[in-house]
Amino acid sequence: MLAKRIIPCLDCDLAVPQGRVVKGVEFKKIRYAGVPWELASRYYREGADEIVFLDITASSDRRETMYNVIRKTAENVFVPLAVGGGIKSLEDVRGVFVAGADKVTVNTTALKRPEVISEIAGEYGSQACVVAIDAKRRDAPSEGRITVPTPQGESWFEASFYGGREFSGVDALAWAMEAEALGAGEILLTSMDRDGTYDGFDIPLTQAVSDRVRIPVIASGGCGSPDDIFEVFSRTGASAALAASIFHYNEWGVDAVKRYLAEKGVHVRI
Amino acid sequence: MPIAVVDYGVGNLFSIYNALDQIGAVPKLARDPEEIGSFDGIVVPGVGSFGRCMRRLYRFEPALRRVLEEGTPILGICVGMQVLFEGSEESPEEGLGWIAGRVVRLPASVLVPQIGWNTLSIRREMEILEGISDDDFFYFVHSYHCVPADPSVVAATTEYGLEVAAAISEENLFAVQFHPEKSGEKGLSILRNFVRLSRC
């Protein structure tokens, strides 16, 4: 039986020579967490099912730094590596694959030019193309939106781009379905309202997306405890849970989280 | 002892290269069919679509067939397993046809692609699965799966909507649907078994 995946996410600031892992709260208030490949290696040894690197600086002149981070990580981490942030072209995709990544995540580029999803899937296969959606809850009614019941009433979700700095106007639920149709292999779904808050995953959002697509959904944003992961797996169709803060600051090891989930009956790889 | 990783222009060979290097094998990327003859073992990787892989693999076919007949162990991984079959629902191109059977899409009852860690049901002994048990997880990423005409080639299956062939072997030809190079320490064990076999 396919196991639920636990994925540590490393947001990388590449403005320093070797890069560093940082973590923000609701995409702001950045805090330093460690050296990218050292953290990745620790998570691998603890049993991480996959590692995600996101270049939050997303600037093309720092691309070499990201390649170096991937190369150093891939030397002793033998689980899949997904890399995102600033991927603009097939050339960028090739670069991260040559460095040792297995998947890319695209957000801004895909929103601006959706065909890039088909291009990546055509060249490297759907499994190599993860579409990242940063979703912001909107409670004010808006014509033509897909709404879902939330504690705030009937809400819709707006997809954000440029690392949460701008809003696209695109309905995140409709976009998830379109991304699937274009050939995305997975959806990495981040709740901007929950990101870094430790308040738990956004269940209505995660459920709404996983109900609408037939590809795996990775739930992200808000994980503050193993119980939050248990909740998102028991209440939604998410295939994987992504977390950053609880792993970075040694509050929980990946192994401890998995043991907790296994005791509660979640099928995880131990 | 050198192990060739057939570099026919698809996907990321860095992972398999690194994994072989990590376990003490001497991996070499073989970019030309002429290079294939001088290795103790051959790894045929594969990502992306069946047709795209086959179009680029055709020129290696005679060289690969020759070393297979000479008894060199060959390991196909993921689409590198699927190309050993006669053909696939995914693309019109013909496969290598070394194993009778076809490649079909995963059933609509499950999320496709299968992405993630799954366990094996080991059906019979297979050299490269030595030390592996039904409790061990391996990383799968695929939308299509192999259906051999002769079920006895299947050494292990995995459950995903139906019983999917996860590992097959026929004499010195081995193949796995999952990615041993991305399956943690247990995956490295499988590669170690393959390398040991290559040295015999």
Automatic annotation (TrEMBL), chain A:
GO terms for molecular function: lyase activity. The active site is at 11, 134. Transmembrane segments: none annotated. The keyword Nucleotide-binding does not apply. Its main location: cytoplasm. It catalyses: 5-[(5-phospho-1-deoxy-D-ribulos-1-ylimino)methylamino]-1-(5-phospho-beta-D-ribosyl)imidazole-4-carboxamide + L-glutamine = D-erythro-1-(imidazol-4-yl)glycerol 3-phosphate + 5-amino-1-(5-phospho-beta-D-ribosyl)imidazole-4-carboxamide + L-glutamate + H(+). Keywords: Amino-acid biosynthesis, Cytoplasm, Histidine biosynthesis, Lyase. It is found in: Cytoplasm. Its EC number is 4.3.2.10. The keyword Cytoplasm applies. Pathway: Amino-acid biosynthesis; L-histidine biosynthesis; L-histidine from 5-phospho-alpha-D-ribose 1-diphosphate: step 5/9. Belongs to the HisA/HisF family. Heterodimer of HisH and HisF. IGPS catalyzes the conversion of PRFAR and glutamine to IGP, AICAR and glutamate. The HisF subunit catalyzes the cyclization activity that produces IGP and AICAR from PRFAR using the ammonia provided by the HisH subunit. This is Imidazole glycerol phosphate synthase subunit HisF.
Automatic annotation (TrEMBL), chain B:
It catalyses: L-glutamine + H2O = L-glutamate + NH4(+); 5-[(5-phospho-1-deoxy-D-ribulos-1-ylimino)methylamino]-1-(5-phospho-beta-D-ribosyl)imidazole-4-carboxamide + L-glutamine = D-erythro-1-(imidazol-4-yl)glycerol 3-phosphate + 5-amino-1-(5-phospho-beta-D-ribosyl)imidazole-4-carboxamide + L-glutamate + H(+). One of its GO terms (molecular function) is lyase activity. Keywords: Amino-acid biosynthesis, Cytoplasm, Glutamine amidotransferase, Histidine biosynthesis, Hydrolase, Lyase. Its EC number is 4.3.2.10, 3.5.1.2. Pfam families: GATase. It is found in: Cytoplasm. Residues 5-195 form the Glutamine amidotransferase domain. Pathway: Amino-acid biosynthesis; L-histidine biosynthesis; L-histidine from 5-phospho-alpha-D-ribose 1-diphosphate: step 5/9. It comes from the Archaea. CDD domains: GATase1_IGP_Synthase. SUPFAM superfamilies: Class I glutamine amidotransferase-like (SSF52317). The active site is at residues 78, 179, 181. Coiled coil: none annotated. Heterodimer of HisH and HisF. IGPS catalyzes the conversion of PRFAR and glutamine to IGP, AICAR and glutamate. The HisH subunit catalyzes the hydrolysis of glutamine to glutamate and ammonia as part of the synthesis of IGP and AICAR. The resulting ammonia molecule is channeled to the active site of HisF. This is Imidazole glycerol phosphate synthase subunit HisH. The gene is hisH.
